[in-house]
Amino acid sequence: MACSAEYIEFICSQIEGVGVIRTRKMFGDYCISVDEKPVILACDEIAYIKKHKSIEEMMTDAEVGFPYDGAKEHYILDVEHANKAKKIIETLLPNLPFPKPKKKTGK
In tens digits, what is the pLDDT along the chain, a chain of 107 residues? Predict the structure, then answer.
């Protein structure tokens, strides 16, 4: 089941204020970026966030899962609790790389 537009809007409203939020639809699901860094994968109405040492202590009680077949294990971000979700993203964001630029094909 793909994510609904309403769920994506909900996630974005819950994390509002952490930076510039941008969404991109990918294969029926979404990637949510903050300040041009991909932070959340929203798949099947679940918000996944990368497992990283910087947020490990904050996520000790978090469920884990796989956003798609072949993906690494991610934490499931509890977006119902906006303040905690924002704190987690603010802690993780400086530790995430910017995406690599896409190679241009010369024709």
Answer: 678 999 999 999 999 999 999 999 987 799 999 999 999 999 999 999 999 999 999 999 999 999 989 999 999 999 999 999 999 999 999 999 888 887 776 65
DSSP 37-93: EEEEEEETTEEEEE--GGGTGGGTT--EE-SSTTPPPEEEP-TTSHHHHHHHHHHHG
Give the C-alpha separation, 49 to 31, whole Å. Answer: 10
Q: Does the reported pTM lie above 0.70?
A: yes
Residue 76 DSSP label: E
